[in-house]
Amino acid sequence: MKLLAILLCLNFFNTTDTGEYGRYRVEITTTEGHQLKAYITISTYGELKTEFETDKMFKDYLFGLYGYEDLDSLKFCRQLRYVNYPPFDNNGEKLVASLDRDWISLAKSDILRLKFVFFKPLGRLALATKLTGEEIVLFQKEPFYVGTFSIDPQVEDFTGIWILSYNSDLEEGEVNEIIAAIKETYEERKVVDDYLQNFGIHENLFLLSQKKLWDYGVYLIRVEVI
């Protein structure tokens, strides 16, 4: 998931200095008359606008942005959720997490009205992916151990892997042994110069390790940053 068309939060008008990444808070009216408030994060070239004379001008602007003009639909997030861990600072914003139910994809043809509410410039796009509601609550608390590591940088690209231990009986050395075992298993299975096959091996190993460690109060978390 290298293109994150996601979220949005505070900060008022005037154009942004950062330009590439920004999050709009919007109010949507669909062609069927449904109304909802949501966020959409935009990554594009050039400076993002934050002043619009009419709702139609805002809608036309978003629909016509470079990289979005050929899309049939846009993806919105209805609620932003933040976690204290893993630690992250993006222009004063903590790491964003989301649940599957927070997301909605709308065809452009189904959007009757799109109203600009406010805008926040973002230095980077960052998202902790595929967390459960229980994990979002848990990750507000400080873990006994928190760290980041890499299994294969070439496969991970813009994704960072974090390990959080909420098991008070687990020593730091034992967590390091877990990390070493994951890396060793990957090295045994990886195929030389085969990115696609290694991507699949990496994914399967991550998910299997994640599932096994849950039972011990240890969590593997992926954080996507671009």
Record keyword descriptors for this entry.
2 domains; 11 strands; alpha+beta; 226 residues
In words, what does this structure look like?
It contains five helices and eleven strands, in the order ββαββββββαβαβααβ. The strands form four sheets. The protein has a four-stranded antiparallel sheet. The protein has a three-stranded antiparallel sheet with strand order 2-1-7. Helices cover 26% and strands 31% of the residues. The longest helix is centred in the C-terminal third of the chain and has 20 residues, at 195-214. The radius of gyration is 20 Å and the shape is elongated. It has two domains: 21-128, no CATH class; 143-225, no CATH class. The chain is an alpha+beta fold.
Mean pLDDT level? 87
- Rg (CA only): 20 Å
- Look at the helices and sheets and give the structural class: alpha+beta
Count all strands and give the number: 11
Biggest sheet: strands, sense, closure?
Answer: 4 strands, antiparallel
Please indicate the percent range of residues in DSSP E strands (runs of 2 or more): 25-35%
Helicity, as a percent range: 25-40%
Low-pLDDT stretches: 1-19
Order of strands across the main sheet: 8-11-10-9
SSE map:
Blueprint (H helix, E strand, L loop, with lengths): L20 E10 L4 E9 L11 H10 L8 E5 L3 E3 L11 E3 L5 E5 L3 E12 L3 E3 L4 H6 L6 E5 L3 H4 L2 E7 L6 H18 L5 H20 L3 E8 L1
Antiparallel strand pairs: 1-2, 1-7, 3-6, 4-5, 8-11, 9-10, 10-11
Helix pairs in contact: 4-5
